[in-house]
Amino acid sequence: MPKALITGITGQDGSYLAELLISKNYEVFGLVRRKSQLGYGQSEHLKERVTFIDGDMTDTTSLVKAMTISSADEVYNLAANSFVASSWNAPDSAAEINAVGVTKLLEAIRFVKPEARFYQASTSEMFGLVQEIPQKETTPFYPRSPYGVAKLYGHWITKNYRESYGIFACNGILFNHESERRGAEFVTRKITLAAAAICKGRQEVLELGNLSAQRDWGHSEDYVRAMWLMLQQDEPDDYVVASGEVHTVRDFCAVAFERAGMALTWSGEGLDETGTDKAGRVRVRVNPAFFRPAEVDILFGDPSKAEQKLGWKREISFERLVERMVDHDLAAN
Ligand code: NAP
Ligand code: F7E
Asked: Which of 13, 89, 135, 145 could form a disulfide with 139, with the two C-beta atoms 3.0–4.6 Å apart?
């Protein structure tokens, strides 16, 4: 029975990856940090099937212990402060968890089980102020947030441990992926939760920042499959994982509100732009408080390498992603 250690198991991707590995008969271990409230986040339903290990990405000893206890054949490093906007509020912490934490985990692997295979959750945010459209593995990086800068360090240290010590280490450069388990602060879930709440009469209006930001959105269930595939290859490598389609935040709102039974009409420009329902009520408006100090205007990935070399293909379309999220939030509220 192969053994896998997942950091970030309480988050969106960690929970879907744990389900995938359990379905493939892995023994799954998950690193969990202490919080003021007990619980396993998005993996609560897996608590009988996962062995949870206390630890923290900022604490080397706990990572060495996690490697020793699990003796993992595959290590998936999904732990991060993953909310870009908050990385300006806590930049040191972004660096400690998302950057130096990767080195700590690689060192733990090197000392405890250097033959273990390692997956690093790299990100399209490293492309930031994009130098090429669409972005692929060879596109130069230009991160635009403390989050993106920290992740770029994590990306390069992963490559460096591959080249320095021969560790089977892969970077998955994943573009935005969402789901019914997405954190409520990310724009997609903020929209689907609001569409559901407005539909049920519990909220009047949704306030957003940059409606023109463009993202390449897929479903987490599809993307965790790519993570696993990377660690099953003969050689370690880095891959872009993306849908190959781009949509604006405005488009996402339009599809979500339509699904919730409220088609929107858009009018105005910039800070005055609004989305209005059939009865003329403003349902979406812009609030400058949600703009970022430096924006990433467009992320648009080319997944050709992952498709050709890994045989990966996304199965859940953009429209289906939005429908699933809205339907879930309508049913839950
Ligand atoms: P998420 O839902 O925010 O989950 C992040 C996980 O990291 C949580 O389990 C969190 O634990 C854990 N974590 C944070 N700080 C930690 C620490 N100091 N020690 C141990 N664990 C810690 O994120 P996600 O969407 O699943 O993303 C997974 C990974 O992929 C992240 O590294 C993210 O940066 C990266 N990524 C995500 C996307 C995307 O679109 N989703 C795209 C590219 C890359 P708590 O529950 O204790 O907070
Ligand atoms: O923002 C704009 C915002 O916070 C998307 C993380 O998983 O993907 C994610 O990072 C866009 C941005 O995700 C609001 O300005 C407008 O342009 O959902 P988001 P993100 O920043 O793209 C990457 C690949 C990761 O690696 C990250 O971990 O939407 N936007 N209005 C807004 N965003 C938010 N959150 N809230 C708004 O009101």
From this structure: 135
